[in-house]
């Protein structure tokens, strides 16, 4: 699978917004098709499901849905294809994938229910402000 993605190139410019949009959909399809291979390479079955990774990819694409310039869309698409290529060629380690795509930008969910019982309010505020 990794060698088939190597040959995929983004043309320098899309002629229109509609063409750039179709290229984004094609990229999303190819990324979703490579998810099972990525899960096997990085052994992600214990931390994420295929649907979770698919929704993470969709969320990353939707994050830039406000962009209407085809050149900017092509540039972002090129960066996304390079990222997918790096992942499928095992250029990243497992903790990189987990940190970026499983845990995400919101960080780890901390279970502070039982640990916080003996901590002062000052320390609780300190931990909340420094360890988001």
Automatic annotation (TrEMBL):
Membrane protein topology class: Peripheral membrane protein
Coiled-coil region list: none
Organism: Fagus sylvatica (Beechnut)
Keyword presence, Transport: yes
InterPro entries documented for this protein: Complex1_LYR_NDUFA6_LYRM6 (IPR045299), NADH_Ub_cplx-1_asu_su-6 (IPR016488)
Family per record: Belongs to the complex I LYR family.
GO biological process, one term: response to oxidative stress
Name of the featured protein: NADH dehydrogenase [ubiquinone] 1 alpha subcomplex subunit 6
UniProt keyword list: Electron transport, Membrane, Mitochondrion, Mitochondrion inner membrane, Respiratory chain, Transport
Subcellular location: Mitochondrion inner membrane
Cellular-component GO terms for this entry: mitochondrial inner membrane; respiratory chain complex I
Membrane found in the keyword field: yes
Broad class of where this protein is predominantly found: mitochondrion
């Amino acid at each position: 699978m990794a060698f088939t993605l190597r040959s995929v190139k983004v043309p320098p410019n899309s002629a229109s917004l509609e063409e750039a949009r179709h290229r984004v959909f094609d990229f999303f399809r190819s990324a979703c098709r490579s998810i099972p291979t990525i899960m096997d390479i990085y052994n992600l079955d214990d931390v994420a499901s295929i649907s979770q990774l698919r929704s993470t990819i969709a969320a990353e694409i939707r994050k830039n849905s406000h962009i209407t310039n085809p050149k900017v869309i092509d540039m972002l698409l090129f960066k996304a294809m390079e990222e997918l290529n790096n992942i499928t060629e095992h250029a990243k380690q497992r903790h990189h994938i987990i940190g970026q795509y499983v845990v995400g930008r919101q960080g780890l969910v901390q279970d502070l229910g039982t640990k916080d019982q003996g901590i002062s309010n000052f320390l609780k505020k300190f931990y909340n402000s420094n360890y988001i």
